[in-house]
Amino acid sequence: DQLQQKIICPGPVTCLTASPNGLYILAGVAESIYLWEVSNGNLLAILNRHYQDLTCLCFTDDSSHFLSGAKDCLALVWNLYNVLQAEPSQIPDPRHIWSRHSLPITDLCCGFGGPLARAATASLDQTAKLWEISSGELLLSVLFDVGIMAVTLDLSEYHMFCGGMDGSIFQVDLCAWPVQRDRTFQTERENGKVFKGHRNQVTCLSVSTDGSLLLSGSHDETVRLWDIQSKQCLKTMNHKGRNVLISRILTARGCCCLTCAALGTPGPVTNAFIVLAPANMFNPDGKPSVPLPKFSRHLHGTESSDEPGTEGVTLRLGLHQQEPGQSYLEKAEKMYSQMYSTREKNLVGDQEHLTIQVSELEEEVSNLRKINKDLFDFSTRIITKPAK
Question: CA-CA distance, 84 to 137, in Å (whole number)?
Fold first, then answer.
């Protein structure tokens, strides 16, 4: 329970996320995205491509890309490698700009697969949309009766769960037939796919790793745990306190439920998610092995007057390294490009290699035809040979 580090940010933080590999932290401050490196606290980039305040941020599972959503109705997909390689004076371009929403974006969720994953966006325009990160194409758009405040996918990505402003939670089947890109969720016809229990807007959703439990937080100051199959509420946790972090262990399933409340006594739940319980959680003497450094408020490489006496060696991979040769990030990007080219060759086929194969097969067919003709002529001569 001891405070490890107090970090003063450049302004009020509207959204915050950490990369799955634990190397980077993203924060949304007004219209800007701040990227810090956790190991040394360096501020690596400040991205200004949104026109209104940030509302949500999330990483892909391999930490290679991250997504940002804002009140300007835009969702942007960023390549982390390009962001790290860009000069401090330049703002890198996002990989994709999704502008199909007509009202502010409220939540983002990214599936599994790294750059090949699918991402879901929720908006006040009463729609939830499913996108493909690799191509940037819109795969599905679902229209609801209310504005959508939260969205998440199960591990198998068979279902998309959407939390509405009226407290309802909708379950959308992603494998429904026939396949339609634009779909309308009609509540009166989908009674078996609606979770009802919250009395105010749903702010956050999370699915357990086995796909059987759904966790939801709401402005009604409660966190609910649902059985997805039966749509029954298994447990209701009321929030008491101000800016508190509550940890509850689901021992039967080996999971840990983390919930966080906003201002107020009690206050609306602003975030809740299910994670696997780390091993040191059950150790009362467990402490972080590496202290968290103080995060810088100035871009790395620029003069800073608020950090006197900084000592130590700072290593930054990429364009800022002193040694010649490829950096680790460049090697990783090259490996990714080779992987993609191999995949494309497997899907599309190498034209030159295919031409060679066709030529070899045609030559083999020609030889077989010649052999067949010789056998036919030989047999004909034997059969038609006059008897002695």
Answer: 25
Pick the CATH number of 13-277 from 2.130.10.10, 3.40.50.720, 3.40.190.10, 2.40.160.20: 2.130.10.10
Q: What are phi and psi of 148, to 5 degrees?
A: -105, 125
Across the strands, what pairs with 110? 119
The DSSP 8-state label assigned to residue 115 in this structure reads G
What kind and span of H or E run contains 32?
strand 32-37
DSSP per residue, 126-162 = SEEEEEETTT--EEEEEE-SS-EEEEEE-TTSSEEEE
Q: What is the CA radius of gyration of the chain?
A: 28
Phi, psi of 77 (to 5 degrees): -110, 125
Residues 249-268 pLDDT 10s: 454 444 555 555 544 456 78
pLDDT digits (tens, 9 = 90+) for 315-359: 444 444 444 455 556 666 676 666 656 555 555 555 666 777 788
pTM for this model (two decimals): 0.73
Amino acid letter, residue 218: S
Residue type, 313: V
